[in-house]
Design goal:
Elements (H helix, E strand, L loop, with lengths): L2 H41 L2 H16 L10 H31 L9 H18 L4 H13 L3 H8 L3 H21 L3
Helix pairs in contact: 1-2, 1-3, 2-3, 3-4, 5-6, 5-7, 6-7
Length: about 180
């Protein structure tokens, strides 16, 4: 690529970025307050609502092409809904883990740092298994966390051992693809 082509490509990228920033800025100014109010009603927590609204616009900032949106509120609602579902799932997982810990004697309680590391690990596992059918996810967790045999898993899930084999294979492939796509 010669210098003239590089300069043109650089100028074109700068124009696309400028257009994207302008569109996003307008979208933010016109709809941010509305989105925070909507999320506050759904979550009953203005702080979480503000965080999710902000994350919605950050997600838009990651788009590489200029935003051409016909129905901005519907578009923002769709993005915010996905983020809200993830937030609620994370909160519920954390609450469940902390409830389990509260039943332990004080001498067996992990340190605050260990709790945070475990909670983050639980969230990562949840993200990795997201999208799997429930039986495949449950079979994989029973194998990995409980150490059950395929026959024991089949009995617990009410399916055949062959089905368990298929579930485990599907889950293992799903996890491998997730890891590959999310390597740092």
């Amino acid at each position: 690529m010669n210098m003239l082509e590089q300069a043109h490509q650089s100028q074109s990228s700068a124009l696309r970025f400028e257009q994207l920033a302008t569109n996003l800025s307008e979208l933010y100014v016109n709809h941010h307050r509305w989105l925070v109010k909507l999320l506050s009603r759904k979550l009953s927590c203005p702080h979480s609502a503000a965080d999710i609204a902000q994350d919605t616009f950050v997600k838009l900032l990651g788009k590489s092409a200029p935003i051409q949106i016909q129905e901005p509120r519907a578009y923002l609602t769709t993005i915010a809904h996905g983020l809200m579902v993830n937030h609620i799932r994370r909160r519920d997982l954390e609450r469940e883990y902390l409830n389990i810990l509260s039943a332990l004697p004080a001498s067996e309680q992990p340190s605050t740092e260990s709790k945070m590391i475990i909670i983050e690990t639980i969230h990562q596992i949840d993200m990795m298994l997201e999208g799997l059918p429930s039986k495949a996810r449950n079979a994989y967790l029973l194998l990995q966390l409980e150490g059950l045999s395929y026959a024991e898993i089949a009995s617990q899930l009410g399916v055949t051992t062959r089905s368990v084999t298929n579930y485990i294979a599907k889950a293992a492939l799903h996890c491998a693809v997730f890891k590959k796509n999310h390597q740092k």
